[in-house]
Amino acid sequence: MEPGEVILLVVLALVVIMVITTVAKAVRIVPQATSVIVERLGRYSRTLEPGLHFLVPFVDRPRAVVDLREQVVSFPPQPVITSDNLVVNIDTVIYFQPTDPKAAVYEIYNYIQGIEQLTVTTLRNVIGSLDLEQTLTSRDQINGQLRGVLDEATGRWGIRVNRVELKAIDPPASVQDSMEKQMRAERDRRAAILNAEGVKQSQILTAEGDKQAAILRAEGQAQSAVLKAQGESKAILQVFDAIHRGDADPKLLAYQYLQMLPQIANGTSSKMWIVPTELTAALGSISGALGGDVQQAPSGSSASSGAAARPREGEIAENPFENTQLEDPNEALERARQEAAGASAEADADARRVSGASGSTLPPAPPTQPLGYDKPQQ
């Protein structure tokens, strides 16, 4: 190959390479959510939006590519002094988005570094007016103040601050230890209070239960005593009326007296017992009855009156207690509580009423005398 042909081939290769380079520089494809700042001869020319664009080779030059998506930047912990002279380390997270690519490129050299420094200074101003307790409990307030200051300052940079978050607030180790002890003491105090309240409620409920049980037990005993007293009262009235109707003679009384003597002497603590002088007369009456020596009582004696009081053969004796019924326990208890002082008088009134219904008249209570006492013959 001749030298002229070689030179021609080299020239053609250089032209092809230059054409390819020129076309590559003239065609620019911009991705979505991205802007390209183009300078022409060193001056701002235009901002390329997403799509296909043609540039003038060797005249137009891309200056910067700006990402328009929201960005998240986490800054390292910054020491901040609170109003009560405590140093705390605070981590912050900034959410921002470029809104004006031209301002973000030409108004500030590095907008991320500018946002970081502005966040640190604003954070120190805000935290410096708060104590530790307020700092730990006022995160929303601090976030709002930081966002307001940063959004106002970064607006001319073409940056919009969407959100500011305090990721961590770390007090000194000694303060953390004191806070843990304080919280532990507070929880122990609350636990002691709750325990005391539980014991108090338990004791109150137990006392209420004991009180109600004692009241119910006393009411039951009172009802039992009232019913027992009523039964004994009616039994005494029936026995007394039966004795009065039967007109018991001294023989029967002496026999009953002899039956009671073993019971009198049956006590374990009884060392001696007294035999009344009327026992001889009672035994004489019994022996006379067993021997068949029956004396006729005078016509005016009490025996004849007792015989007249007995029902004749074939007749049915009137029972004055036939319609007698025990009262309801609750009513009896209420009446016993209200009329306790007049219980004896009420018993006497019942006795008189029963005697009047049977048609007999109860004699007054005789003076105290031993069993076996003979009535005087009239």
Task: Annotate the secondary structure layout.
Elements: H1 3-26, E1 27-30, E2 34-40, E3 43-48, E4 51-54, E5 60-67, E6 71-81, E7 87-98, H2 101-106, H3 111-127, H4 132-137, H5 139-154, E8 159-170, H6 173-246, H7 250-265, H8 279-291, H9 302-309, H10 329-338, H11 343-358
Antiparallel strand pairs: 1-4, 2-3, 2-5, 6-7, 7-8
Helix pairs in contact: 3-5, 6-10, 7-8
Model description:
With 378 residues, the chain is α+β, with helices and mostly antiparallel strands. It has 3 domains: 3-67, no CATH class; 71-171, Band 7 domain (Tetrahydropterin Synthase, Chain A), CATH 3.30.479.30; 208-264 and 275-358, no CATH class. It contains 11 helices and 8 strands. It has helices spanning 3-26, 101-106, 111-127, 132-137, 139-154, 173-246, 250-265, 279-291, 302-309, 329-338, 343-358; strands spanning 27-30, 34-40, 43-48, 51-54, 60-67, 71-81, 87-98, 159-170. A 3-stranded antiparallel β-sheet has the order 3-2-5. A 3-stranded antiparallel β-sheet has the order 6-7-8. Strand 2 (34-40) and strand 3 form a beta hairpin. Helix 7 packs across helix 8. The longest helix is centred in the middle third of the chain and has 74 residues, at 173-246. The model is unreliable at 292-317 and 358-378 (pLDDT under 50). Its main location: membrane. Keywords: Membrane, Transmembrane, Transmembrane helix.
